[in-house]
Amino acid sequence: MPSQAKKILKQYWGYSQFRPLQEDIIQSVLEGHDTLALLPTGGGKSICFQVPGLVLGGLTLVISPLIALMQDQVSQLKKRGIKAAAIFSGMSSKEIDITLDNCRFGDISFLYISPERIQSPVFKERVLHMPVRLVAVDEAHCVSQWGYDFRPPYLQIPDLRNIFPTVPVIALTATATPQVQQDLLQKLQLVQARVFKKSFARDNLAYHVRMIEDKGNKMLTALRNIPGTAIVYMRSRQKCEQIAAWLQSKKISADYYHAGLSGEIRSKKQEAWINDQIRVMVATNAFGMGIDKPDVRLVIHLDLTDNLESYYQEAGRGGRDEQKAFALTLYNQQDINRLEQRWRDSQPSAKTIRTVYQAIANHYKIAIGAAKLASFPFDLPAFCEKFKLPPIQVHHAMKRLSDLGYIQLSESVWKPSRLSFLCNPKQMYELQVKNAEIDQITKALLRKHGGMLYGEYVNINEKRLAKSLQLKADLVINILKRLHQMGMVDYQAQSEAATLTFLEARHDALNLPLSMEESKRKAQQERKKLDAVLLYADEAVRCRQKVLQEYFGEENVKDCGQCDRCLERKQTTKTEEVNEETMRSSLLKALANGPLPLEELFALTAEGNEDNFKTAVQKLLREGSLFYNEAGKIDRK
Question: Which of 393, 452, 500, 575 has the greatest count of CB atoms below 10 A from its CB?
Fold first, then answer.
């Protein structure tokens, strides 16, 4: 391991040592090997490509599936003084253009893009001239959504190998079954890849599952018995709010979090929880991605997840500090019924898929053959209302269209207002001289952001800017809009709508290529994942962690000794030992006054428990404490 890597780790992250496997993974990358890294949630995956990226210099190209994850990692890198950028749907063409230029001519170290971006002609042309030294595929399990079927845009990643044949590729994930691991190696064309896999065992995390009708009071008991920060996961946004309010009524510090809240509110709630101002966050699965809070002591699932991959990642947010933590799942028969219904709802017919595709084209007035890689804001409730379509059918039809590579629907992500000066300093100065209001606002921006405004995009808060200048926010916004119209700046107002992108030019809906046989195969795979969840929840004997490890392909694993099933087994063993000692004492006491026939000894001591009686007698006979005398009676020494 080059000393430079450890220096970078200390300089930017403040750590003096790497975690287990991190050092080996980084060494592999620095030696130029393609690398597949499987590290559990909280195992420090991002460091495995960020540190070698800085050591190698130039640009690290990071392919990531989620906008929120991109934004979080770019933000974290910038806080550490490392230059990073991201390109995602919803950005203006000018902003994309400037970002790509900065990656070519500037000193950007990390560029995050979605896999769909690789198909963009603009990206294809610009990337040829970028100093790419490393390609990282983050959250690589998203490549294979069912464990065998790849999102089409991910298949474009190997095209980068043709451009950068000597550049190593590292793929990273926290959850991958053996089949997915093989798929990653094959479909990403990782050449003679070194594979590093940390056990999925979490020695400090105890898994407990209860089938129970009164989930609320069981949750309350757990929260009162296990001190410290907690997360409660649910599917329904409305129920998140209800449960948080109920916990507050029980004097538990709690709040709720879901994608229906504005980005600003979500950010404030998240910060309050991270800073221990809120103890319990009741949330949908929108909460947690990219959050690195080490001291979560309890993760509760009040709903069953669709698959064990999601469950393992969410439960794994507990105990990242390696201290004892608990993952508690509470469910009942209604939850099973709902999960079954969700699976049935997730299989749209070809007619439904074509109807929804045509409605999308009509909604945006897109002609056949047009709109390849064009992005549009998308409001699902408004869309469903406009075309009188059931939201559940639309959701699953769009998911299938996304799976087939026709569209991409990004998650609703809050994007703060962004600004960049398009003119040069002389042009801006001339404008400032002519207009006092523009002068006041641009000077305030330059004082805060300096020369970064020329050639880079910065996040701005119009309300704070207006307050600092004692102006009305509307006035500041209008002036920024005017500067945008004049071509002096590129001003992108904040937004948080979901974004729909056409990955291919619009097809004729009637002739849209659909393989329903393929859909049937996907449905079967999804069903297998659902069944694995149900089997895990219903497991009556085996160690919970062992079940998870074997699901992810680990062999010859040991019981964890701390899940509910292991503890029950320990208690059963302890009870059996107590019963055995009690029976032994009773037998010896009954024979204290002389030998007895076996039947009479049984009547005096066994209390009808024939198995315990036989076991105890046989053991005492073997060790010589009892024996049969010449009359055939049992006697003691």
Answer: 500
> What CATH number did the domain enclosing 583 receive?
1.10.10.10
Query: What is the residue type of 342?
Result: R
Least reliable range by pLDDT among 169-178, 328-337, 346-355, 495-504:
495-504
Q: What's the rounded mean pLDDT across residues 229-237?
A: 94
Q: Domain for residue 519, yes or no? A: no
Shared domain for 317 and 430, answered yes or no, is: no
Torsion over CA: 18, 24, 30, 35 (sign) = negative
Q: Count the domains in the chain.
A: 5
189 in the same domain as 40: yes
Residues in the chain: 637
Distance between CA atoms of residues 228 and 242, nearest Å: 22
Q: Which amino acid is at 55?
A: V
Distance separating alpha carbons of residues 378 and 501, to the nearest angstrom: 9
The arithmetic mean of pLDDT across residues 60-76, rounded, is 85
What is the rounded radius of gyration, in angstroms, for the C-alpha atoms of the chain?
31
Shared domain check, 225 and 346:
no
State residue 42's pLDDT score: 67
User: Does residue 9 contact residue 15 with C-beta atoms inside 8 Å?
Assistant: yes
Q: pLDDT tens-digit profile of 464-507?
A: 899 999 999 999 999 999 999 998 998 988 776 778 889 889 99
The percent of the chain in helix, strand and coil, each rounded to the nearest 5, is: 50, 15, 35
| CA distances from residue 218 to 239, 263, 400 in whole angstroms, order as listed | 17, 32, 38
For 14-154, where are the alpha helices, taking DSSP H only?
22-30, 47-56, 67-79, 93-105, 121-127
- What does the pLDDT read at residue 573? 67
Mean pLDDT value across the chain: 87
Note the pLDDT tens digit of each residue in 375-415.
Answer: 888 888 899 999 999 998 998 899 889 878 888 887 666 67
14: left (phi over 0), alpha (psi -120 to 50) or beta: left
- The pair of structure tokens assigned to 203 is 């020695």
**440 in the same domain as 403:** no
Contacts 24+ apart (CB under 8 A), 160-167: 160/61, 160/118, 160/127, 160/132, 160/135, 161/189, 163/127, 163/128, 163/132, 164/132, 164/135, 166/32, 167/132, 167/133, 167/134, 167/135
> Which CATH number fits the domain that encloses residue 138?
3.40.50.300
Which of 244-253, 454-463, 553-562 is the least confident region? Answer: 454-463
Residue 227 to residues 252, 296, 297, 340, 624: CA-CA distances in angstroms?
11, 10, 7, 35, 52
Q: Which domain holds residue 398?
A: 341-413+497-514
The confidence score (pLDDT) of residue 584 equals: 82
Contact predicate 36/196, CB 8 Å = yes
Give the pairing type, strands 35-38 and 169-173: parallel
348 SS3 class: coil
Are residues 222 and 281 located together in one domain of the fold? Answer: yes
Residue 456: both structure tokens together: 């880079």
Q: Among candidates 622, 627, 556, which has minimal Cα distance to 588?
A: 627
8, part of any domain: yes
Q: Give the residue with greater pLDDT, 576 vs 257.
A: 257
Sheet holding 375-378, edge to edge: 375-378, 498-502, 407-409
The amino acid at 450: G
CB 52 within 8 A of CB 4: no
